[in-house]
User: Which sequence fits this backbone?
């Protein structure tokens, strides 16, 4: 059991916790805005990744377009920003109200999911890059790992199985949007976390809507370790 439920803490969490929630939301969003693919391509390579391939500011399009060791920089950036955002959520919960709720795992989970949601919003719609960002899979996968190993196991497992079998990274990515709310409910059985998980999953699927249409039409590009395999713009 996870101790207190949402009904036990809702009044204080919503009213006394309004400012911490706002701080976590803003911090998480701006962490997400540090898009690795855009930063590396635009400011190091001087060639914006969003003008190539699918036009997406994500790891897959960056690798297909540029490849090379700078891909690792993109990965590291998108992983670290997700770690930072989730830790902001964790620490805010632990220090909020003098640590009164710090021993309640469910409240820590609220902080993780809340921060993760806004980190993905920042990644997908970065204000500093004209709201044109990535699709959130690498950052989202990192957030899943930070949340709970059981959540990460199901989300990453489904992604890898579908991506390897079909070579459609986008199909594996969409599976995470479906499995994330399901495993969230199985692990926590909490309505608020389920709602947050549904929002996160829906964002991921919505960002891949163009990929899903191309899969149905049979025109979606399959992943290859070779560079410069152009994908239609989403």
Assistant:
């Amino acid at each position: 059991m996870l101790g207190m439920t949402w009904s036990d803490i809702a009044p204080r969490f919503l009213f006394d916790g309004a400012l911490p929630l706002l701080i976590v939301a803003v911090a998480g969003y701006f962490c997400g805005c540090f898009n690795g693919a855009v930063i590396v391509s635009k400011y190091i390579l001087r060639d914006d990744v969003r003008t190539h391939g699918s036009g997406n500011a994500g790891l897959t399009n960056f690798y297909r377009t540029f490849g090379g060791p700078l891909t690792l920089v993109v990965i590291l950036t998108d992983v670290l920003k997700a770690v930072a955002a989730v830790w902001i959520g964790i620490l805010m919960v632990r220090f909020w109200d003098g640590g009164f709720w710090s021993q309640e795992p469910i409240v820590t989970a609220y902080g993780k999911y809340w921060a993760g949601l806004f980190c993905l919003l920042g990644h997908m719609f970065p204000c500093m890059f004209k709201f044109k960002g990535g699709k959130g899979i690498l950052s989202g996968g990192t957030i899943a790992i930070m949340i709970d190993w059981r959540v990460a196991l199901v989300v990453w497992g489904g992604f890898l199985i579908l991506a390897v079998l079909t070579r459609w990274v986008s199909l594996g990515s969409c599976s995470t949007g479906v499995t994330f709310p399901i495993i969230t409910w199985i692990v926590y059985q909490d309505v608020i976390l389920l709602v947050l998980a549904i929002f996160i999953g829906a964002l991921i699927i919505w960002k891949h809507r163009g990929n899903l249409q191309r899969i149905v039409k049979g025109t979606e590009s399959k992943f290859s370790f070779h560079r410069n395999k152009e994908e239609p713009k989403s």
Remarks:
- The longest helix spans residues 70-95.
- The chain has a mean pLDDT of 85.
- The radius of gyration is 18 Å.
